[in-house]
Design goal:
With 104 residues, the protein is an alpha+beta fold. It has one domain. Helices cover 22% and strands 27% of the residues. The chain has two helices and five strands, in the order H-E-E-E-E-E-H. Strands 1-2-3-4-5 form a five-stranded antiparallel sheet. A hairpin with a 7-residue loop joins strand 2 and strand 3. Helix 1 packs across helix 2. The chain starts with 11 loop residues before the first helix and ends in a 5-residue tail after the last helix.
Length: 104
């Protein structure tokens, strides 16, 4: 069975970067070709955030990953799904919410 690719898959990277900019989010690293960005863990934190576009699902996934383990092997360093959304704007909103300081 062939994988269904979204018509908008080619513009997903542009949409994602624009949505992050509209939310005022900065400090991330992005792929030069894919709709994928990483917000590294802050020096005093242990969690990094990633947003990636999944073309065959036509959705964006926002995940948190434990940065303190230092593993690059994703099979032993699983991510926690924070959201799976349809638009880049929703993904940016999910990241903005996750980056809010925890209540004291």
């Amino acid at each position: 069975m062939p994988i269904r690719l979204s018509v908008r898959a080619g513009g997903a990277r542009t949409e994602l970067l624009a949505a992050l900019e509209r939310e005022g989010l900065a400090g991330f690293r992005s792929s030069s070709e894919l709709a994928w960005v990483v917000f590294p863990a802050p020096p005093d934190g242990t969690t990094s955030l990633e947003v990636l576009y999944v073309p065959h699902l036509d959705r964006y996934r926002v995940v948190a990953r434990d940065a303190g383990r230092g593993s690059v092997d994703r099979s032993v360093d699983p991510a926690r799904l924070l959201g799976e959304v349809e638009t880049a704007g929703e993904a940016a909103g999910c990241v903005a919410e996750a980056l809010l300081p925890a209540p004291v």
